Amino acid sequence: MVTRGLLAGLAASLAIALTPASSWSHPLHTTLADVSIDTDGSCRVTLRAFADDFTAAVARHAGKPRPADFVVAERDVATYVSSTIVIRGRDGRIVPLVWAGARRTGDLIWITVRASSVRSLAGIRFVYSTLFEAFPDEVNILQANDNGRRHTVLFTASDGRSFKTIL
C-alpha cells in the first residue's frame, strides 16, 4: 500500500531529478590550497576547486560568458588566481606568483602557482579569497607544510581579503 508520505517523497525526488542541472549547486562551497616548500626551495601553492564553480568565477572575472564545458583560458585562470591568492613575504612585500599549470580530474580542477622568492613559510601571510565573490558561505582551507610542520588555516567569505599568518 502506498502512503501519502511516500507519494510526497517520490514527488519531491522526481522534482529534484527533473530540475535543470544549471540550477544545481554544490552543497558545500569550498576550495583547498596545499602550500609547501619544494625541493628546489621555492614555494608551491596547489589549489583544488570544483571545475564548474571555479571556471564560472574565472570567466566572470575576465568579463566572459560562463563556459558550458568548464574550459577557460590559462591566462584568465592565472589572472583570477593572482587576484584571490596573495602572499606577503616576511619583509611585508607582496610576492609575485608564477603560473605552473592546471589539470582536470573529473569535476575537480587543480591549479599550481609558485612563489620562487619564498624559501620558508614561517611568518608568511596569505589572503585566500577564491570564490568569495560567488558564494557568501565559501570556506577555503589552506594546508601548509614546512619542514614537517603542518598547519591548517580557514578563510571564510566574512574574512574578506584579510591576511592571515599560516605558520
Distance between the termini: 61 Å
| Secondary structure category | alpha+beta
Count of the separate structural domains:
1
What share of the residues does DSSP label as strand, in percent? 35-45%
Helix fraction by DSSP (H/I, runs of at least 4): 10-25%
The tally of helices reads: 3
Q: Helix and strand string, N-terminal first?
A: HEEHHEEEEEEEE
- Strands in their spatial order, largest beta sheet: 5-6-2-1-8-9
Q: Name the overall outline.
A: globular
Q: Any low-confidence stretches, pLDDT <50, length ≥5?
A: 1-24
How many whole angstroms does the radius of gyration measure? 19 Å
Average pLDDT rating: 86
Task: Count all strands and give the number.
Answer: 10
| Biggest beta sheet attributes | 6 strands, mixed
What do these coordinates show?
With 167 residues, this protein is of the alpha+beta class. The protein has one domain (28-165). 23% of the residues lie in helices and 36% in strands. It has helices spanning 4-18, 51-62, 74-84, and strands spanning 30-37, 43-50, 85-88, 94-95, 98-105, 108-115, 125-128, 139-146, 149-156, 164-165. The strands form two sheets. It has a six-stranded mixed sheet with strand order 5-6-2-1-8-9. Strands 4-3-7-10 form a four-stranded antiparallel sheet. A hairpin with a 2-residue loop joins strand 5 (98-105) and strand 6 (108-115). The N and C termini lie far apart (61 Å).
